[in-house]
Structure formats: structure tokens, C-alpha cells
Amino acid sequence: MTAAFLRRWFWVWLFGLPLLALAVWGIVDNQRLFFATALNGLTLAALYFLVASGFTLVFGLLRNVNLAHGSLYLLGAYVGWVVGEWLGSWFLAVAAGFLFAAFMGLLLQIGVFRFMHGQDLRQTMATIALSIIAADIALWIWGGEIYQFDPPRWIIGSTALPIVGKFATYRLVLLAMAIVIGLALWWFLARTRVGMMIRAGVDDRAMLSASGIDVQMVFAITFAIGAGLAGFAGVVGGTALSIAPGEDTRYLLASLVVVIVGGMGSVAGAALGAVLVGLAEQFGLAYAPTYGIVFTFVVMTLVLAFRPQGILGRRA
């Protein structure tokens, strides 16, 4: 056995055994609370993954620092709410949120990022300014009220589960949607021609361009998909929780933490990071509510300390 192998398992046991002991204690102390909290953490992770999957495409693969990603989430949610109110269809609201955010992402790529490739500081400052403008416009149009979607009737109500008891059906549907989208996104990047072009363009833009492929078009499509996923998450997240000013900042921060923990450019890493962050947040709120938010940053700090590229990330 190599030294690297032994070192890896040393850290697994060092952090795994205390977590296992805490899990056993939680189950023995209050079985229903433990499993209900775990399920809440997984459904919250599903929402974080939907937002972060788009962010990992833009930030992790394209290396575009888009700090307006949270604004795309919020604007997609608001536009979806307006369409849902007008047409009375939740599915059309989801489609509207996705398409509007995708269109805004396309404009961002064409009008901003194509002129700032590799200029991280300029991208950061420009997208911070755009996010502030978008938040003010949203506040001007929709005010400071809290909005919420009405999901389809077949997912309203609760489902009886073993041990946990009644649990919101929509949250279970949200978890299933995240799994399906995650698998579809992995297949798109790993198995399709466009996905291969995206990965090739990230590794060597000049070589891809020399082969006759329009790199800007490939990147614009990728950015639109990533932005559209943020708008999609805005509608499904607004259905599970609510839409209100400040949600853009919350989900931008969550996306950053998820991508950092999971690893840049990895869909599987985004899923793993979302699960760790969602579980840490919910278990923190359930067992140590005063310091609940601290648990999330403890996870991020430990990952940065022992694996700076993220759990499933590649070394630069």
C-alpha cells in the first residue's frame, strides 16, 4: 500500500468515526428527528444542486466568474411567478423561468464575458454591478413582498413515510427532479458531441477553434444552459420555499460553497457538495440552532484545508 493510500484512509477514519458516532447517538436519542432532518437536508441539497449545477457549468467549466448567478435565480423565479399567475399553469411558469434566465445568460456571455476572457477581476466587478442593478430592478417591479407558487394538485399534500411519518410530497418530487437533471447533465457533458466540444474548449480553446468549431457559440450555449438551470431552480425553489428580496445572495453563496466543496467543473462534485452542505445546514439547525450556519463553513474549511481543489475536483 502506498503512502498516499494510507494517508487518504487516515483522514477518512479521522473524520468518519466521529460523524458515525454522532449519527448513532442521534438515532438512539430521537430516531424520527434524525431521519426527518436527514430527509430535509437531502431535499434542501436537491435545490442547492439545481442552482449550483448551472454555476458549476459557468464557473467551474468555462472559468467565468459570474457573481450575478443568484440574480438569474431570483429573476427567473419572479418571471415564472408572473407567467404562472397569468396563465394558471405551474409547468408554464417553470418553462418561463428557465427560458428567461437562459436568455439573460446568453446576453451576459455575448455582451460581457466574451470580451473579458481570463480577466477574473473585471468579470467579478462587472457581475457584482449587474447583480446589484438586477436586485434593485426586481425590488422596483415586485416590491418587498413574499411570493409563493401553487404547485400542481397531484403534488400538494404529504406522503406517509416509514419512521419519518408525513412528509411534504413536493419536496420528494424536488429530490427526484434533481436526480434526473443531474444524470441528464452528466450524460450531456460526457456522452454528447456538444458536451465533448465544451470540455475540449475549456482545456484548449485555440485547438478547438482551429478545428473549425465556433468556440464562442459553444460557450454561449453552455452559459445559456447554466443560467437556465438557475431560473428553473428559482421556480421550483420558490414553490418549495418562497420568493423574496435577498434570495439571490443566499443562493449565490450556497452555489459558491457547493462548487468549492465538490470541485470546480464536476457535476458529480456539485451533487456531493450540495448533499454535504444541505445535511450540514439542516443538522446544524436541528441540533445546534444557534450555530447552525457555522456547520456549513466548517465543511468548506475542512475541504479547503485538506483538498483545496474540492472533493472531486482536478488539480490545476
From TrEMBL:
Cite the InterPro entries for this sequence: ABC_transp_permease, BCAA_transport_permease
Transmembrane stretches, by residue range? 9-28, 34-59, 66-84, 90-113, 125-143, 168-189, 217-245, 251-277, 284-306
CDD domains tied to this protein = TM_PBP1_LivH_like
- What lineage does the source organism belong to? Bacteria, Pseudomonadati, Pseudomonadota, Alphaproteobacteria, Hyphomicrobiales
What is the protein name stated in its UniProt record?
Answer: Branched-chain amino acid ABC transporter permease
Which Gene Ontology biological process is one annotated for this entry?
A: amino acid transport
Q: Name one GO cellular component term.
A: plasma membrane
According to the UniProt entry, its GO molecular function terms are: transmembrane transporter activity
Family recorded in the similarity comment: Belongs to the binding-protein-dependent transport system permease family. LivHM subfamily.
Source organism per UniProt: Reyranella soli
Keywords, ordered alphabetically:
Amino-acid transport, Cell membrane, Membrane, Transmembrane, Transmembrane helix, Transport
Where does the protein end up?
Cell membrane
Q: How does it sit in the membrane?
A: Multi-pass membrane protein
Pfam families noted in UniProt: BPD_transp_2
rRNA-binding recorded as keyword: no
Superkingdom of the source? Bacteria
Main location per the UniProt record: membrane
Reply yes or no: does the keyword Transmembrane helix apply: yes
